[in-house]
Amino acid sequence: MRFFPYDQPYENQREAMDRIHNSLHRGQDVLFEGACGTGKTLSSLVPALEIAREQDKTVVITTNVHQQMRQFVAEARAITREESIRAVVFKGKSSMCHIDVDYEECQALRDNTRAVVDAERDRDQLERRQRELLAESQDGDGSAADARSAVMDELEDIEDRLEDLAEQNVCDYYRNNLTGDTDDFFGWLFEDVRTPDEIYDYAEQQQFCGYELLKEGLEGVDLVVCNYHHLLDSTIREQFFRWLGRDPDDIIAVFDEAHNVEDAAREHATRTCSERTFDSALDELADADDPRSDDAANVLSAFHRALVETYEDSFGFGERERIGDGWEDVPIANDDRKDDLTLEFLQRYSGRGIEDDLEAAMKLGQELDEQYEEAYREGETATRTECQTLQAAAFVSAWMAEGSAEGLYPVVSVTRDAGTDEIYGRAELYSCLPRQVTGRLFDEIYATVLMSATLQPFDVTENVLGLEDAVTMAYGLQFPAENRRTYAVESPPLFSSDRDDPAVQEEVTETIRDAVRMTPGNTLAFFPNYGEAGRYADRLETRGDRTVYLDEPGESVEELRKQFIADDDAVLCTSLWGTLAEGVSFDGDDAHTVLVVGVPYPHLDDRAEAVQEAYDVAFDGTDTGWRYAVEIPTVRKTRQALGRVIRSPEDVGVRALLDRRYSRDAKSDLGKYSVNGTFPHEEREELIDIAPEKLKFSMLNFYGGHDAYDGEPPAP
């Protein structure tokens, strides 16, 4: 309890901390599901810090939700008021760079700057030494004169070197790191838990590179707050642990919003290469005065032509004209043979051998990359050029070596350049099995806590992420049950084939309208997609009962949220797959009712089918893919949306699922289309089946019983 910063834990929080402490002591991984009010962050962080203190380890807590990052900072600050810990909030270089250069440029600038500073220090030391020797020789020491002559020769060499280095690119901010007094910075850094923005501003005032100083300050810290990619990207992870001065077995990792780890790991494992990269690589090779350039161009041009031919052949009548500025997939996978792009590549290639040509391209690319690095270091170029040949050759090598590997799905996508109106494509190796990323991570590090409000079913999470024998625990809502109602409204099931039925739309609209009218305050309404959200926002607006806010792609969600919560009797329509469905709280009077309209299955494209098939093969079941890849993630999204309200013991609210597929009674006639059984048992027990026309009366009685209406309640 020395790391617990408040007077008393919540109900069940002490038990959760105790169980997590015991599990971490044994080096076991933990799956921890806790509803709002469980105090998941401290339940995980407090025992992790205790074990880290006992066993000399470092705790890394990570999230992909910006709001959660702020909460971690607040909790860490509270802990430091009670127990001394060294905590750092770490973000990537791109968000903390003062001169806005990419990673390769930054690396070259660092090396150049350090070389200049080291040479200047050597010069200064030699200057002092020659002055000492001069004084000794003037006092009659003959050997000092000879020694001074040798020192002067070294000085001349150093001066020549500094003259050359003066023409190279350097970073003045990093130079100040190396030459200035940074003690005050580190004193300030560890006085409290500083945010990346605070570090950036403080470093800017002192003309330091805050990112590089932060890296120096990581070694020996107790706690690091960071983004997912610092752990999920294997290359970044290796560097990150090196900066921490830790081996993987010295790390206790805490993943927040861990239901998102599956998609994040899949994204980190996926590889892409654009047609434009191939164009640039071929231009680069045409300019290269090297005998290997012909072989390299031979193999890369064959793949480039195959890529273009593959997507051009896929277009039916009028399809080319309909391509927009977002990436659209072109199906190329085949069940009984290699994918279309590989077949086209093999047909178009002619040469001494694909492997030999790719090897030549890789070696030449590496040498060109080193030349670009040297040119930037020497100040011959203003920016650090990326070697496109190296990137293209590495991708084609991976495509040929791994394209048919387990869990990798080959894809071609196309898009339209908004500026030139040109259509161009990219090839992609899409990763279907996230455990190929996460399983390796969990094997390397000491222990992990994965926490979320929606991790169940635990066996699925273990299988998908590659966990073995994890300790599992789940805690439901700790707030008074009498302050909430959760309804499964038996409105028509919104199958995609029925969504355009006018009768269905009218019944659903009236049910939503009833719920909004009976709510003493604001209502959140989540839909399967932005199109459906827009449809029902228009229908509600025509009824004129309440102010209607519509969340649309590309608009500022935070600004919309502020407008909505400033209102008193409004409804906000959004997609369940948007950013408002998780990580955003609607506390107190911000919203009282939340509706989930329909079962928001994702768009089932070829990628989704590939993931299902990969899960079927990996987990030996014909229905496993649908359950693991579609149904469970969809219900998790629904559960996340329901959790946007009822955020404190004092909150009073209604949560309603508008679709018969959620109801218990419909399981017998809807069969596999029912999703009621996918909810955890405790949440199923809270679901009250209700007819659409009775919802308004139930809500009127519930809110009226809590004196929630300001004045006379609305007429049902």
Written description of the protein model:
By secondary structure, the chain is α/β, with parallel strands linked by helices. Helices cover 51% and strands 13% of the residues. The chain has 28 helices and 18 strands. The chain has a seven-stranded parallel beta sheet with strand order 3-4-2-5-10-1-11. Strands 14-15-13-16-17-12-18 form a seven-stranded parallel beta sheet, with helices on both faces. Strands 6-9-8-7 form a four-stranded antiparallel beta sheet. The model has no long low-confidence stretch (mean pLDDT 91).
Give short descriptive properties of this protein.
716 residues, alpha/beta, seven-stranded parallel β-sheet, 18 strands, globular
Mean pLDDT: 91
User: What is the 3D form?
Assistant: globular
Structural class: alpha/beta
Total number of strands: 18
Number of helices: 28
Q: In this structure, how is the largest beta sheet organized?
A: 7 strands, parallel
Strand content: 5-15%
What integer value in Å does the Rg equal?
A: 31 Å
Give the end-to-end Cα distance, rounded to a whole number of Å.
Answer: 51 Å
In the predicted model, the low-confidence regions spanning at least 5 consecutive residues are none
* Residues in helix, %: 40-55%
Q: What strand line-up does the widest sheet have?
A: 3-4-2-5-10-1-11
